[in-house]
Amino acid sequence: MLTEIKGLNEECGLFGIWNHDNAAHITYYGLQSLQHRGQEGAGIVINDGNKLIVKKGEGLVTEVFSKQVIDEMPGHKGIGHVRYTVNGDRSFENIQPLLFHSHTGNLALALNGSIINAGRMRALLEAQGSIFQTTSDTELLAHLIKRSKHPNFISKVKAALNSLIGAYAFLIMTDNELMAALDPNGIHPLSIGKLGESYVIASETCAFDIIGAEFIRDVEPGELIIINDEGIHSEMFAPKEKMALCAMEYVYFARPDSNLRSLNVHTARKNLGKQLAIEAPIEADVITGVPDSSISAAIGYAEQSGIPYELGLIKNRYVGRTFIQPTQQLREQGVKMKLSAVRGVVDGKRVIMVDDSIVRGTTSKRIVKLLKDVGAKEVHVVISSPPIEHPCFYGVDTTSKDDLIASGRTVEEIREIIGANSLTFLSEEGMLKALKQDDSSKLEGACLACFTGEYPTEINIDEPTVATTINKVYRIY
Amino acid sequence: MLTEIKGLNEECGLFGIWNHDNAAHITYYGLQSLQHRGQEGAGIVINDGNKLIVKKGEGLVTEVFSKQVIDEMPGHKGIGHVRYTVNGDRSFENIQPLLFHSHTGNLALALNGSIINAGRMRALLEAQGSIFQTTSDTELLAHLIKRSKHPNFISKVKAALNSLIGAYAFLIMTDNELMAALDPNGIHPLSIGKLGESYVIASETCAFDIIGAEFIRDVEPGELIIINDEGIHSEMFAPKEKMALCAMEYVYFARPDSNLRSLNVHTARKNLGKQLAIEAPIEADVITGVPDSSISAAIGYAEQSGIPYELGLIKNRYVGRTFIQPTQQLREQGVKMKLSAVRGVVDGKRVIMVDDSIVRGTTSKRIVKLLKDVGAKEVHVVISSPPIEHPCFYGVDTTSKDDLIASGRTVEEIREIIGANSLTFLSEEGMLKALKQDDSSKLEGACLACFTGEYPTEINIDEPTVATTINKVYRIY
Amino acid sequence: MLTEIKGLNEECGLFGIWNHDNAAHITYYGLQSLQHRGQEGAGIVINDGNKLIVKKGEGLVTEVFSKQVIDEMPGHKGIGHVRYTVNGDRSFENIQPLLFHSHTGNLALALNGSIINAGRMRALLEAQGSIFQTTSDTELLAHLIKRSKHPNFISKVKAALNSLIGAYAFLIMTDNELMAALDPNGIHPLSIGKLGESYVIASETCAFDIIGAEFIRDVEPGELIIINDEGIHSEMFAPKEKMALCAMEYVYFARPDSNLRSLNVHTARKNLGKQLAIEAPIEADVITGVPDSSISAAIGYAEQSGIPYELGLIKNRYVGRTFIQPTQQLREQGVKMKLSAVRGVVDGKRVIMVDDSIVRGTTSKRIVKLLKDVGAKEVHVVISSPPIEHPCFYGVDTTSKDDLIASGRTVEEIREIIGANSLTFLSEEGMLKALKQDDSSKLEGACLACFTGEYPTEINIDEPTVATTINKVYRIY
Amino acid sequence: MLTEIKGLNEECGLFGIWNHDNAAHITYYGLQSLQHRGQEGAGIVINDGNKLIVKKGEGLVTEVFSKQVIDEMPGHKGIGHVRYTVNGDRSFENIQPLLFHSHTGNLALALNGSIINAGRMRALLEAQGSIFQTTSDTELLAHLIKRSKHPNFISKVKAALNSLIGAYAFLIMTDNELMAALDPNGIHPLSIGKLGESYVIASETCAFDIIGAEFIRDVEPGELIIINDEGIHSEMFAPKEKMALCAMEYVYFARPDSNLRSLNVHTARKNLGKQLAIEAPIEADVITGVPDSSISAAIGYAEQSGIPYELGLIKNRYVGRTFIQPTQQLREQGVKMKLSAVRGVVDGKRVIMVDDSIVRGTTSKRIVKLLKDVGAKEVHVVISSPPIEHPCFYGVDTTSKDDLIASGRTVEEIREIIGANSLTFLSEEGMLKALKQDDSSKLEGACLACFTGEYPTEINIDEPTVATTINKVYRIY
């Protein structure tokens, strides 16, 4: 729901489990805790020893899976997926996990990410006789594995992964093993946990907490994890490159109770807010954060600045899919939808409004107006990340510069559009400093491409939407 | 949903509008903003000039009302209601508003509250030939109005209200007017707003903000507000007694963006938290609040104490009605439902956990365990209200002392049950001081009956569940 | 569904049971077998010894009642109701049974029929202080019972029934007894059965067959049946008048497997068809009936005439509530909805099309066209009842002469409108002769008011829709 | 629904249209008329010129497709499919049509039938690198087309079809054409129609009647029909073998208003009934048919024998998917489900009960008991087809001899099991005679394999379930 406010959508969440009596139930709770990573489709595939049982559908995990459905999915092994639809692609076929049947066994695949050289690889495979039943990048991997001349399955998978360029976290389930693979830059998060005797894999560690599992470690860039009835082992399918974990995971996508590369997301956000208070000290009466993702940064700013943190903005908790959108006329008369400003807190005050990022700017403009409408004397917008000026090709739906208000505009121009008294973005240096600040962090490098335009992989291979050649570089710190 | 965590349920929310082109739409948004006051049933009655159009159902406002339904409710006047089911009463008949048809016109009624002398009055009316089609207290008023010998409708209504003892906020809609009435102690909130040329009535002021209406004033205890095509006027149906607004509205029930008697709820909660920090200074590393209702108090405690406020507890946003409850076995294995503790924030720390109240204690116990399970070194529970030792007879579902952990137990005994390192409740004096603290407040007196056992009305009239005679007194401050 | 084809709607079906372990389940199956009598709403009330459990809703029995709902209705006594909405009255309040609560016990009421003096009685009761919560005639009886000065409940009920004029079959359930009452003319059917040790009441005997119960006898006109834990007994609340069972029950409304006054409906229809063949011998190649209600008459016509009966018209079995109606444009292009003609049977043939009645004529016209479109050389329409020229005031929704094609038109004029090669109606005498023909029949008299305009009760009392004074007479045979 | 009574399921229905403004709507109505051929899943694929729009789901056509869904499927070309699930295969992936994407265009496929050499072909294709995403035979054709070395698409399709052995009616839609192919024996029906300027293809001609289309001709065995914007043309992909249209299509599967090979199904059934009356003259009072599929045969028997046809068995029209099944206990107490016997018609009579076939015998046994329970003096069961002794491998779900009561039992043994006074099956000769009887028929040969064990194709190729070698022969007449 928050994502509807923002217009910035992470595309997927992954969960897998091997060797648990209630594989379907655990996968359900795991996916449920990853719901923020994808709210438009969900799927679970369970292997019951003899066959795959699959259930997929549009909507939230709780909408797709009833108790009856989950109860009818016995089996000890499973993978699940939540997703956004990308580029208006709403065909049911593309809801993951995808299944592939063969007389030698079944294959189930789920992907978080985006393959840069997908178009070229599809053409190549089609020329060799492959038929594609979906338009999903995920299907590529299946054909590449099938086509591989390597002698055993693991070698085939490693070869197939090596053909792909982009950001990808894959779950691969066969009758005999559950595999997890992460691209050589480690652009998306993927972690390993243990629940009793069972191994679990999830996009975020919050899934481990919700099911009572213990965090073991993150999957490394270029690593292929193989879990089977003998246990767990690891192979590198590619030399690890410089880690480039998406910085927006910390800023916005991930749940505050997750740890990414051992750095807690809430703590990271709070540090971003503190750094912002250092970079942009503002005289004001109250601080408020845009719920929910900016609360931590706002608290950090408040702690650093000494200005009191208040609930100046309230999100309506019961606005769901079936909520009736107000007509244009009613909106103009003042009917609010998802967010309202708290007059009792804001009236007559100079307000610092902390947000995590600005994408199109329309939401920021609306919130500034909400605050002024209930009497805010001044509204100072502070953003706990740098301006997003460049599209993402790794699985976030900002694929065009046209949608990005910061692309080609000065901060002052943006300020004027959103109607704030002042506008401050966190600096790139400040962002990196804040993310490095915490002792527990094992973050080695981050993808700042949407801020800097420096992409960690090639991106101009075959996507016609990528017009300009962009060097394969990324910021090192 | 939070209420499910707490086990403390306010029973109703009211909304009414007179003279607006989109009465049904506005009532929908108004009710939606009051959803926290009742999530098990909703109803809207619209008067289209010729007839009443009614739609009621079980569930959330967004579940009962589709766009099509609202669009098919033209008319300029309407009232709506959200409710909890009380005492296992789930019969559809009791979903409000209730309708009464007569050749002289139609009557629609909605009630927030509870009538203490309902049993006696029903028996009296039945003896005179009245038939009851519901078991709701609301129906009483209709029969009393019908039976009244007074010459005009307003006199009838005033006489009928005078026969009732208890806590009640009524909305009354006829073909010619919309009325709002509040019991002489003003136990529940009820406010008047203006939206363009239309008058609106709502249980909380947050409804005005969401529809873009202006707050005019609160309905006074003992007052009957009459809105018709000529405008608005007021009559007293009973002498105003000492105001006794339910203190738990500030502590827990109301939305933080509402103002009750001109005191902002978030601000009130923050002041309760500050007062708690003064009364109970504790040495600790982090402060966390139980979401959502205790966040403000936790921030207040943090501001006063200087100990950092952190997101140590996270509520799962997507857990709704259709969520599959984990089995006992899975729960024992550690599967969480609605709340999870954030290891990255809590591990190794001394934690102050702020909650607004303790009812049965089971939730507190569970949360303390959640925090300890993720590594909290110490958990100090501080409660921003006094112990709830007495049942409520005014519309909150704590009708038996047996359900109240604080009834007949010392604080030390409760602490041991919930497993905290320490437990502190706010004092009654501290609570009153905190609620008086804000300049804007027009609160003249509060009902503290659940803490003190001193009830603002007679309560032992005819309810067999009330065993002991309790004097009609209430705390004055 | 068929009724949608016809535009002639019976309004209700009743079922009651006393003293059965599975009262709710049995009532469900009973109502289900009466579904043809009302498809727009259904309700069941079960008395579990301590309280009433009620479930009502819009739609079919299978839509309103899930297994879970029925399983949650324990109790040994119950009544149920299926209904059509009359006069656009779709308010949920009017779905029956209606419930009335009192400290002396609960009352549940269900009605099949229509009260002629409802308006006058409501005004009278309102003047005495009664409040009506529905616009249903059923509620009248509750107030009349409550107001009655008679000393005991049975006397009150008898007095109340005596105040009512019209056609009514009532089920009345209290904590202590189940009652069934039939108006003095016995206009609607109502029968008594026995299922093991339990007594059951139903609108049609097909309900007994479906639950495995034994038919005992029909309720007599003017009779009040009282079933309680002691057994069953009968009292007359009014002198029985000349029986006037609705003739259209035989012709169209009832299920062919029901017996009305011991006359099987299929047999009656077949006899109507035979009589029609005697009155209207036509030279033709094939006979076809309009499914489903005219099949029996068509078979009778075929048997009598020697012309082969064929399936010339097929009803689409899967067309339900959610069927997408073809647009006007598609209909004009030939898209059919519920009925299609069978070219392989009809092409090049002279066809006798048997239908049971003509109301508006639009359906007949459409079916004639269907048959001609697939090659019928001639279409001879024969109707197994006389022309419907007069409105019904007893619970069938033909309340205005304007809707009746036969009102004010000659048979030749109607023939021209519907485009048939010939059109024949059964004579009134032929109809009565056919209904008397079977030895088993205990039918003493029938209401032919819609054919003759002679109504068995007063009808011009207070209904403004009844413009002309019509003598209280009815046809005797 | 009837199929639930019988336990004999045809697996699929096909519909396709090229060049119509409302392709989705027309396909909806077409599929709807074919609903009897498959009630567990439905799908429509529309080509809007640029892309494929697909919607598939479990359940009836009216359950899968809402008005909104159909309205959101613009485009001029489309194919649709209704299906049964076979062998417990309920995976969503297998709901047809199946889609295949390629940079050279899209392919949509739908199949009615079963491929005998599917296992062998899959293994072969997998060895060449193909990956299967479904377990449906339909997917085979896509891979075979893709793998074909032939120079153009039509040649590829013809070569691919030639690799398949079995019973198949395929619809194939690309961006440029709609194709229809029928196996060389023409085991399943497939017909061509014209609707204005549009060509349509359907499994049965009833679909043409429902949409107002004109029947052109049937697809010939071994024929490939190609429809594109230039018009329609035909090629043979295989030499036509002896036609072997499934005889059970006439007996049971098809709708009575369809013509198969120009022979009307109702007429065919009536002739089967007449032939049965000739072969098995029985002294009795009434004849009744098991609804719905045996009505025509019963009428034929009655016409031939002079014994009156009556509605002795009534099907409950409102029993759908959500109907609550009676518990075993209630069933034993006499609660009926889908069928009830009419006491008023049957009591004291000698009854001839006409049914079209006996599969397991459990239903026949139940119906005989129903009739005897309401007083039938004698029940003579006559079956309008020979005993089903052999499994079907062509798409009907009688895959094991164990399920067939007639397999290995004498007629007298079956009679004893079902409890009838006598039991007669139609002879094979009589069946063929009856099917040849009508002048309009163009039926050249029928598959009687389930009666005779003589299969028109090889069947022992690679299906492990087929234990014995069965010669490739079929009965000639």
TrEMBL record, chains A, B, C, D:
Q: Where does [4Fe-4S] cluster bind?
A: 246, 392, 447, 450
What terms describe the molecular function in GO for this protein? amidophosphoribosyltransferase activity
Function field: Catalyzes the formation of phosphoribosylamine from phosphoribosylpyrophosphate (PRPP) and glutamine.
Query: Which reaction does this enzyme catalyse, per its entry?
Result: 5-phospho-beta-D-ribosylamine + L-glutamate + diphosphate = 5-phospho-alpha-D-ribose 1-diphosphate + L-glutamine + H2O
Q: To which protein family does this belong?
A: In the C-terminal section; belongs to the purine/pyrimidine phosphoribosyltransferase family.
Q: Can you tell me which residues form the catalytic site?
A: 12
Pfam families linked:
GATase_7, Pribosyltran
Entry annotated with the keyword Transcription regulation: no
Keyword Metal-binding part of the UniProt annotation: yes
Pathway participation:
Purine metabolism; IMP biosynthesis via de novo pathway; N(1)-(5-phospho-D-ribosyl)glycinamide from 5-phospho-alpha-D-ribose 1-diphosphate: step 1/2
Record gene name: purF
Which keywords has UniProt assigned to this entry? 4Fe-4S, Glutamine amidotransferase, Glycosyltransferase, Iron, Iron-sulfur, Magnesium, Metal-binding, Purine biosynthesis, Transferase
CDD domains in the record, alphabetically?
GPATase_N (cd00715), PRTases_typeI (cd06223)
Q: What name does the UniProt record give this protein? A: Amidophosphoribosyltransferase
Q: Where does the record place the Glutamine amidotransferase type-2 domain? A: 12-230
Enzyme Commission number? 2.4.2.14
User: What does the cofactor field's note say?
Assistant: Binds 1 Mg(2+) ion per subunit.
Q: Which PANTHER family match?
A: AMIDOPHOSPHORIBOSYLTRANSFERASE
For the ligand (Mg(2+)), the binding residues are: 293, 355-356
* Cofactors required: Mg(2+); [4Fe-4S] cluster
